[in-house]
Amino acid sequence: MGSGEFKPLDEKFLIEYIQATPSLYALLGNNLQDLQIKEVGDGNLNFVFIVQTSSGSLVIKQALPYIRCIGESWPMTKERAYFEASALKEQGRLCPDHVPEVYHFDRSMSLIGMRYLKPPHIILRKGLIAGIEYPFLGEHISEFMAKTLFSTSLLSLTTTEHKSAVAKYCGNVEMCRLTEQVVFSDPYKVSQYNHWTSPYLDKDAEAVREDNILKLEVAELKLKFCERAQALVHGDLHTGSVMVTHDSTQVIDPEFAFYGPMGFDIGAFLANLILAYFSQDGHADQGNDRKNYKEWILKTTADTWNLFDKKFTALWDEHKNSSGEAYLPEIYNNAELQLIVKQKFMKELLHDSLGFGAAKMIRRIVGVAHVEDFESISDAARRADCERLALNFAKMLLKERRKFQSISEVVLAIQKSQ
């Protein structure tokens, strides 16, 4: 089985499919005696099945040819499964500790078989809403970003290798177009897909649509997103695309992967931590004011960037005489010049990350897809208060990102905005 037509999975067909696919059947001990199947695809785009027997387990993910939460009226390429499988394999090769293994990929079925991240793994976003601290989160995510972004950029690759990889991922154009629309376009105009906590944020949403300076800044970022093939980016690296336990961090769902600006991934992750921070007052209660937890989130935000900076530049030092085409060793041949180049690169990358992060925050408040961090605050007025603080901070960050010289200055600004 494998070269047939596309067919959406149901439980009966899934069992037949596994039995007909030796690599998957073997993982379950070639035995479906005590088989358990659970569909857990709470996302917007896919079926996700957890398949378990006493002998083994796996996850089957299938891309549907439309947006699941909207239906067939919004078609969506199922080819994205090919790019997701490709990115999982590539990122898994570069950072095996933080990416689940791919066991099987069937392009005609848009189906990926991969490692099941067993409990107590949960989606990071749910852990942040529950107020759980993850002491290794900054360490692990910075490792994932440093290894995957450095190794797929011209700091590591020849232009031939890089262009060939860019060409491969160019095909993921529909997913990029979706991002272009929902992140960089819709929030800044009247769109049928936008929504917000109404009526509380009606004026705030209107202010975003009428802010000329904001629009100029977001236009610059949109062009960067569309034109700058800097590295293989995950493309959707938010706290819903990371599964965690106390000491494990696993990055999943790279179906938006393409060659784009590094800051898009870094910014997405930082932005989602900051959104989690601003949502905490909505989750506070008499038993827990969440003040300590908010401090932990800010510390993790700073750690994530600072550790990324350290690991990324360490990889650069380690490979400075390798085949990376960006800074040829015979030109950048003295310590002083190498330091200047790195400092300039990292400062620009910080500013990119802050800009993209700010754009992601804005779209999560007045655009189409919101975050559970805010949505799970049942009192609408309370939710809107949290969202407004986040929105105002994001607007400031988008416009003034170049003023920040370090992540600690950003953290300070977040604290002052409360």
The helix/strand series, from N terminus to C terminus, equals HHEEEEEHEEEHHHHHHEEEEHHHHHH
Spans where pLDDT lies below 50 across 5 or more residues: none
Number of strands: 12
Q: How much helicity do the residues have? A: 40-55%
Mean pLDDT: 96
Relative strand content: 5-15%
| Widest β-sheet, arrangement of strands | 1-2-3-7-6
The assigned structural class equals: alpha+beta
Tally of contiguous helical segments: 15
Biggest sheet descriptor: 5 strands, antiparallel
Molecular structure report:
The protein has 418 residues and is α+β, with helices and mostly antiparallel strands. 52% of the residues lie in helices and 12% in strands. The chain has 15 helices and twelve strands. The chain has helices at residues 11-19, 22-27, 80-94, 124-130, 137-151, 159-169, 173-185, 202-209, 212-227, 262-283, 291-318, 335-366, 372-375, 380-400, 407-416; strands at 36-39, 46-53, 56-63, 66-67, 71-75, 102-106, 111-114, 122-123, 231-233, 242-244, 249-251, 258-260. The strands form four sheets. It has a five-stranded antiparallel β-sheet. The chain is globular and about 60 Å long.
